[in-house]
C-alpha cells in the first residue's frame, strides 16, 4: 500500500483518511477469514479502537475507518457497510448479522441547501454533508439486512429484527423490528 495515496487530492486530510481506509479494506477483503493474524493487524489499522477478541467477516465496507469502535468479542458478519463519517460505537458481545448498514452521514433536504457550499476534490463537487454518531450497546443482536440511520442509539441487551429500518433510539432490553423499527417487547 502506498503511503501517499491521497497525494493527488491537494493534501485534504479527510480524503487521505478515506483513501487509506479504501486501501486497508481492499487488503482485508482479499485476506481469507482463516488468516487471523493478518486480519487482526489490518483491523487494528482500520478501526479507531477495538476489543482484543473480534471477528469481522469479509467483505466489510467502511468510508473513513478510524471512526469505528468495536467492543470485546464483537461479531460482524459478511457484507456489512459502516458509513463512518462520524463515530460508530458497538459494545461488547454484540452480534451484527449479514448485510447490516450503519449510516452516520446525511444531507440537507432541499437541493439548494445540499449545494450551498461546495467541497471540490479531484474535479468532483461534493454536497453539504452533516453527521451524527451511532451507538449500539453491549449484548445486542442486530438482524440481517437492518439499516441504522444517523444519530440512533440502541441500548444494551436489545434484539433488532431482520430487515428493520432503525430511525429512532431503541431503549435497553427491548425487542424491536419493522420499517420504521418499533419496540414490540420490553425488558427481555
What is the topology?
Blueprint: H1 13-29, H2 36-46, E1 49-50, E2 54-56, E3 60-62, E4 68-70, E5 74-76, E6 80-83, E7 88-90, E8 95-96, E9 101-103, E10 105-106, H3 111-114, E11 119-121, E12 124-126, E13 130-131, E14 134-136, E15 141-142, E16 147-148, E17 153-154, E18 159-160, E19 165-166, E20 175-177, E21 182-185
Parallel strand pairs: 1-4, 2-5, 3-6, 4-7, 5-8, 6-9, 7-14, 8-15, 9-16, 14-17, 15-18, 16-19, 18-20
Antiparallel strand pairs: 10-13, 11-12, 20-21
Helix pairs in contact: 1-2
Structural summary, described in words:
- The chain is of the alpha/beta class and 188 residues long.
- 17% of the residues lie in helices and 30% in strands.
- It contains three helices and 21 strands.
- A seven-stranded mixed sheet has the order 2-5-8-15-18-20-21, with no helix packed on it. Strands 1-4-7-14-17 form a five-stranded parallel sheet, covered by helices on one side. Strands 3-6-9-16-19 form a five-stranded parallel sheet.
- The longest helix has 17 residues.
- The chain is flat and about 50 Å long.
Amino acid at each position: 500500500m502506498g503511503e501517499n495515496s491521497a497525494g493527488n487530492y491537494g493534501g485534504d486530510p479527510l480524503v487521505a483518511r478515506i483513501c487509506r481506509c479504501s486501501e486497508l479494506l481492499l487488503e482485508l477483503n482479499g485476506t481469507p477469514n482463516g488468516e487471523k493474524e493478518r486480519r487482526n493487524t489490518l483491523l487494528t489499522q482500520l478501526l479507531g479502537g477495538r476489543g482484543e477478541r473480534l471477528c469481522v467477516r469479509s467483505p466489510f465496507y467502511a468510508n473513513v475507518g478510524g471512526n469505528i469502535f468495536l467492543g470485546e468479542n464483537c461479531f460482524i458478519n459478511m457484507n456489512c457497510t459502516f458509513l463512518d463519517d462520524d463515530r460508530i460505537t458497538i459494545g461488547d458481545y454484540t452480534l451484527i448479522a449479514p448485510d447490516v448498514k450503519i449510516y452516520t452521514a446525511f444531507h440537507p433536504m432541499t437541493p439548494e441547501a445540499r449545494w450551498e457550499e461546495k467541497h471540490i476534490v479531484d474535479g468532483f463537487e461534493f454536497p453539504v454533508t452533516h453527521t451524527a454518531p451511532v451507538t449500539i450497546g453491549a449484548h445486542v443482536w442486530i438482524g440481517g439486512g437492518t439499516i441504522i440511520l444517523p444519530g440512533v442509539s440502541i441500548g444494551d441487551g436489545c434484539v433488532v429484527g431482520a430487515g428493520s429500518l432503525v430511525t429512532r433510539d431503541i431503549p435497553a432490553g427491548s425487542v424491536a423490528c419493522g420499517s420504521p423499527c418499533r419496540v414490540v417487547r420490553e425488558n427481555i
